[in-house]
Specification:
Largest sheet: 4 strands, antiparallel
Helix content: 25-40%
Number of helices: 5
Oligomer: single chain
Shape: elongated
Distance between the termini: 54 Å
Order of helices and strands: HEEEEEHHHEEH
Number of strands: 7
Strand content: 15-25%
Structural class: alpha+beta
Radius of gyration: 21 Å
Strand order of the largest sheet: 4-5-6-7
Length: 164
């Protein structure tokens, strides 16, 4: 009887403590890139100072030794917070009297970038966007509509097995 109680307790504890976020979903990609598969999956170039990360939410990706192909559903919140964080880390002054006012300044700068920078301006007009990364040339093409992605995919003669 005691054995059964211990066994049931162990089964209950092991299943009730499990969470999909405990599982390591990270994957190394070619040339120092990596996929971070947490609650807000993204692709990183591995270098904080290069602004080449594909922010959440990465819906699907495929790769080989030369190309990384990504389907993304961009979320404004993630872009705002990641760009604000990038600005904060790169800010060499950082001697604000109040940390909360400093964060407000970084958030305003991030909002301005999202509003006026051609790379981001139209990013939230569609539902999904596509990216092609040529790791050999360190070339990032995107965000693109599905139609533009398919044209570029064919133009660059990317293997069909990488289509997302």
């Amino acid at each position: 009887m005691m054995k059964n109680i211990v066994l049931y307790s162990l089964v209950f504890l092991s299943t009730s403590c499990w969470s999909p976020y405990i599982v390591d979903l990270d994957e190394k990609l070619p040339k120092g890139y990596f996929y971070r598969g947490n609650k807000s999956p993204y692709i990183s170039c591995g270098n904080f100072y290069d602004n080449k990360d594909i922010y959440p939410i990465v819906m699907k990706y495929k790769y080989d030794e030369r190309f990384i192909i990504v389907k993304q559903k961009p979320k404004l919140f993630y872009y705002q917070s990641r760009i604000s964080e990038r600005i904060r880390r790169l800010d060499s002054i950082q001697n604000y009297d109040n940390i909360y006012s400093a964060y407000a300044i970084y958030d305003k700068k991030a909002d301005s970038i999202l509003k006026y920078d051609p790379q981001y301006r139209n990013l939230f007009n569609g539902e999904y966007y596509y990216w092609i990364i040529d790791v050999n040339l360190n070339l990032h093409i995107g965000p693109m509509s599905k139609q533009n992605y398919e044209l570029k995919f064919k133009e660059m003669k990317i293997p069909e097995k990488l289509k997302v």
